[in-house]
């Protein structure tokens, strides 16, 4: 794990323009001792900025996974990201719908606070794989904040199985096999 967030105090913003971000990206990719890797996942901010373009142009990127919440405004940004990766000739491995639903503690029913199926519909429209849904869940947030992912803290949970299915599908994809 490496993050810009680990290099700055918790209460300070990282106020950098393109050249500084590109330098940090170059350092992370070339100077971090990653050891022997099967896969390196790079979590990018949404959008089509310098970091995404530089990563696509300067490094081998086997494919992109686009994550979106189901609402139209988020899908609009996801479409732009997909278009940028297409222009950079980075294959789209698939689309994930994040914060897809939650189970109410009070009534036990499943709710869709941001709508439902938007990312799935977008994947179908693009002919791209729909990799799955990640629920909106407090245990995921708590584990992430504490540095212990849900797949470690509760490996048999429904939430963990969602992440595992997505990872399995990405690993099994034709692009990854190259």
Blueprint of the fold:
Layout: H1 18-30, H2 50-58, E1 64-68, H3 72-87, E2 92-97, E3 102-103, E4 110-111, H4 118-126, E5 130-133, H5 138-146, H6 150-153, H7 158-172, H8 174-177
Helix content: 40-55%
Number of helices: 8
Uncertain segments: none
Enumerate the strands of the largest sheet in spatial order, edge to edge or round the barrel.
1-2-5
CATH architecture verdict of the domain at 58-177: 3-Layer(aba) Sandwich
C-alpha geometry: globular
Distance between the termini: 24 Å
- CATH uppermost class of the domain at 58-177: Alpha Beta
CATH topology of the domain at 58-177: the name is Rossmann fold
Mean pLDDT: 90
User: Which structural class matches the secondary elements?
Assistant: mainly alpha
Beta-strand residue fraction: 5-15%
Order of helices and strands: HHEHEEEHEHHHH
User: What radius of gyration results from the CA coordinates?
Assistant: 17 Å
Major sheet details: 3 strands, parallel
Number of strands: 5
What is the H level of CATH, i.e. the homologous superfamily of the domain at 58-177? P-loop containing nucleotide triphosphate hydrolases
């Amino acid at each position: 794990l490496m993050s810009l967030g680990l290099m700055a105090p918790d209460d300070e913003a990282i106020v950098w323009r393109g050249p500084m971000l590109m330098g940090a990206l170059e350092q992370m990719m070339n100077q971090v001792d990653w050891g022997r890797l099967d896969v390196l996942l790079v979590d990018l901010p949404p959008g089509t900025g310098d970091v995404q373009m530089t990563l696509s142009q300067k490094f081998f990127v086997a494919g992109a996974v686009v994550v979106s919440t189901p609402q139209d405004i988020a899908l609009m940004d996801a479409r732009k990201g997909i278009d940028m990766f297409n222009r950079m000739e980075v294959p789209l491995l698939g689309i994930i719908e994040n914060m897809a639903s939650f189970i109410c503690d009070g009534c036990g029913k499943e709710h869709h606070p941001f709508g439902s199926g938007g990312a799935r519909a977008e994947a179908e429209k693009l002919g791209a794989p729909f990799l799955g849904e990640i629920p909106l869940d407090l245990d995921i947030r708590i584990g992430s904040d504490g540095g212990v992912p849900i797949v470690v803290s509760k490996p048999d949970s429904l939430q963990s199985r969602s992440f595992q299915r997505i990872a399995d599908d990405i690993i099994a994809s034709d692009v990854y096999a190259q």
